[in-house]
Amino acid sequence: MNLIVRLPNWIGDVCMALPALQALDSGGARLHLIGKGWAADLLAAHQWPVTPMPKSLMAGAAMLRSLPVDSLPVNSPRRGLLLTNSLSSAAAFRFAGIAALGHRGDGRSLLLGRGLPRPTGLHEVEVFWRLACAAADWIGLPALPRPAPASLGLRLTPEHQASALAALRQAGIQGPPNRLIVLGPLSVGTTGGQSKRWSGFAELARQLSDRGIVTLTCPGPGEEAQAMAAAPCAIALPGLGLGAYAALCRLAGLTVANDSGPMHLAAAVDAPVIGIFGPSSPARTRPWGGQSTCLGGDGVWPDLATVMAQVDRRMVRSGSGEA
Questions:
Q1: pTM greater than 0.85 (yes/no)
Q2: Which DSSP state fits 178?
Q3: Which end of the chain is more exposed for a tag (fewer CB within 10 A), N or C?
Q4: 143 lies in a domain?
């Protein structure tokens, strides 16, 4: 059974949806993913076809109509899964003749083939997992187990890993990788009108530099100046694709990041990561996995001493010696 899946629009959400996607794939669904342009590189090792979603509603519907039909009997609806919550994504699938399963709300009920209430009080990994469980039942796959897996399971290609190593060489960075710390000082958007960017990254990078720890940032397109302002002592490695960024997090001794895509990239490859939270809630978007720690949240930022103490503990645990 083919299943056309509209991916989330944010890097962290795609990472948190990985267990759901892998479970559907393993259960026998032939996934065709629709999403942002960066998703193809991030998910390259999983070998799922990924088609960029056009910006306009009608162009999106036309693209969806052009996708290969599945093996259902004639006149049976094609099936889709919406991991987004927008009205426009539901409308595009509806106009394309795809019966989609997704969360109700925002006027989407009449556009869906099957609508579910969005649960509250769950981590986003569990929210996506519940959608996958419902989708498996809807298209006749074996029931998925509960609860969701304990790790996100992002796979990397040899090219991802080679690109990460090449970026380190180009920047003249030598020595054991576990003496490196990747910083994610930026974060897009706000929560309750408040920025999700912790103000302590500049001083954190300075103190780590004084201890001989190399800190890195990986700014995306147009973010170079912001990354430099947020962590002047860190070495910037601009231009990395998301797969190479994740590979770099796995090479490094630790990643310290705001509630953001980089935090989830590190968690997705089961790398040691400290998530820094302020206005947002760790209960919903904390880094998922056994090597993850979060500090702050629900309106309270951690102070620098607390973050530094946790960095010390994690670096010692990673085998890099006293930080």
A1: yes
A2: G
A3: N
A4: no
Number of domains the chain is built from: 2
Long-range contact set of residues 279-282: C-beta below 8 Å, sequence gap at least 24? 279/190, 279/191, 279/192, 279/194, 279/195, 279/196, 280/191, 280/196
276 domain residue, yes or no: yes
Q: Verify that 134 and 173 share a domain, yes or no.
A: no
Among residues 240, 242, 215, 71, which one has the least CA distance to residue 155? 242
- Looking at the DSSP assignment, which residues form a beta bridge with residue 102? 115
Q: Could you tell me if residue 240 is inside a domain? A: yes
CB–CB of 265/43 below 8 Å?
no
Angle (CA) 106 110 113, round 5°: 110
Q: What residues make up the domain containing 38?
A: 2-138
Q: Which amino acid is at 219?
A: P
| Cβ–Cβ < 8 Å for 271, 255 | yes
- Could you tell me the two tokens for 296? 């702050």
Domain boundary (138, 169, 184) is at 138
Reported confidence tier of residue 70, pLDDT bands at 50, 70, 90 = low
Question: What DSSP state is assigned to residue 142?
Answer: P
pLDDT digits (tens, 9 = 90+) for 172-214: 998 777 789 999 999 988 888 899 999 999 999 999 999 999 9
Place of tokens 């935090």: 263
Listed residue (141, 136, 215) closest to 182, CA to CA: 215
